[in-house]
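Batch manifest, entry 17 of 40.
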Amino acid sequence: MGSPPPPHVGVSFTPTNHAKIPSNIDPSSTTLPNPSVVVVTGAGKGLGYHISLAYAKAGASGISISSRTLSDLDTLEKEISKTAAEHGRKIEVLKSVCDVTSEESVNALEEEVKQKWGRVDVVMANAGIISAYVENGKDGESNLPVGLVQDDDWVRVLDINLKGTWRISKAFMPLLVASKDGPQTLICSTSIGAHSTDSELTPIAYNVSKLACNRLIEHVANDQKKDGVCAIALHPGGVVTPQTQNHTNAAWGSLLGDDEGLAGAVCVWLTKEKRLWLSGRYVSSNWDVGELQGMRERIVEEDLLKFRMAV
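Output type: structure tokens
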């Protein structure tokens, strides 16, 4: 990118930013409480895959992995078992084909988890997509849709990114509420793109879906605070995934250099204990968590990291 992003984007909210996993949040050096049952949607590829492995390293007792493609889950299941064994951990894996655009499919997933463990400590609503590519014109032009006219993928993007997050959150909320001896934490995958109004960088449908997810998390935090539930919107960093690996926009090249495991390490840190002071807020995986903790009092007093209109 040419000029640095404006302060309201939050890139420099903590003085130190990380592109790789810092040693103080290495999942291998973390021991999660027992039991720790984790649900990860969109787990078959990309960020969900590596978030699942982070929980295996950290000693989750059970993990539900789901996606629309069973063969991806077969591969992940083997890698989870291998990773857990290498780190001296034991973990039960439940793999499920789940389409987050289907309420029936999501409810079936929740029932499987309830029947197997009877509890949920962490739900990571990770399933997401970006608008379908368009045929680019001149060399170097973005193959992502720019503006309203080019982007015909609104229905699919909002159904997966926003309504899918809503379906998962709604289905698993009773189990989160009931698991009162755990962190009771819902994390949804948002994006730094939620702050953008530049459709050449972020397609409008994707931007709107992630912006809405932040507000959804604020509502969940407010409504379920009485039940002890913590809800966080997490920007996973700029990572090359199956969703981003073929972007041709020149700006994206400088934005996709983060470690693919960083978001998983931050998820583990966020959920190894209940962090209600971050509930209802936007958190970036790039921020230094030590510095973030040092800002805790200010974050709470000034009610920071939420989406507000400047007047």
